[in-house]
Amino acid sequence: MAVAGGDERGTTERVLTLLGLLQQRPVWTGPELAGRLGVTPRTVRRDVERLRTLGYPVHASQGVGGGYQLGPGQDLPPLLLDDEEAIATAVSLLAGAGGAVAGADDAALRALTKLDRVLPVRLRHEVRTLSRSVESFGGGRTPVDPEVLMTLARACHDEVEAGFDYPSGSEVRRRQVEPYRLVASDRRWYLFAYDLDRADWRSFRVDRMTDVSPRTWSFRRRAAPDAATYVQEGVASRVYRHQARFLVHASADTVRAQIPASAAVVRRRDSELCEVLSGAGSLDFVLMHVVLLGHDFEVLDPPELRGRCRALAERLLAAGAAGSPVPDVEE
What we know:
Layout: H1 8-24, H2 30-37, H3 41-54, E1 58-61, E2 67-70, H4 83-96, H5 104-118, H6 121-132, E3 134-136, H7 146-158, E4 160-168, E5 171-184, E6 189-195, E7 200-205, E8 210-218, H8 227-238, E9 242-248, H9 252-256, E10 265-270, E11 273-280, H10 283-291, E12 297-301, H11 304-321
Parallel strand pairs: 3-5
Antiparallel strand pairs: 1-2, 4-5, 4-8, 5-6, 6-7, 9-11, 9-12, 10-11
Helix pairs in contact: 1-3, 2-3, 4-5, 4-6, 4-7, 5-6, 6-7
Organism: Pseudonocardia alaniniphila
Protein name: YafY family transcriptional regulator
Domain HTH deoR-type: 11-66
């Protein structure tokens, strides 16, 4: 029979095995556990003390029917994860939030909440750093390097400047920013930041960044627009040549279910009205998309789009009236 000892990794693996055994059935005697672990009863007692030190409520009772028992406790015990494992788990959950699988974003949020509850204080801070630096406005997004997400999340939380290479037209330029939030759309991850070279707010696609690194300069937070709203408006309208705004006679929830979050911003007016803000290379393209929603609507901006509505209506009426009626075909 092996005795207590071995390196630290062996001790950790043995304690984890002991924890697993205690979770399998209500009571174990010391000799039973010693036999399963291949150690002495004295080593079992030491490993039980290690679990108690970590916060696991392991009870011991004497006499017939006595032994070691894992108690419920009012608080969840610390989770046995080292720093890298905890951070990797948090990043993976965040990277998967809002994915293509229905309900995955809610499940990831619940898992992050549970992870926050069971981690030791030292690691709990790291997970909260991530969760507080991420926002979302919509599933199935372009994958990004988790280490880049982690670097940017830390920079957002620690309020330190960040630098990265980013394509601009036909060349790649170094950008220096004050990072504020990571924002997840239905397709991509974005960084919402204050661009120091352009002295204005910008959003950057994380999948386009290279050579991402934090800087040593800290910054004081500025008054900032809402990160998720800013990024969504940029993705849905500002990046396009033309922008249009409509008053749609339907609830915001109904219209949001018809339009991807990256295609338009939907703002609630009341229970039966909403505003739709969208952009495209052609105003006719935006107009057709709103027509196909199937709701009554009014053009708010730009004014010239009202004339395009009349022209489109005339073309459709003409198309419907043109030609001879098509006779029914008998089979």
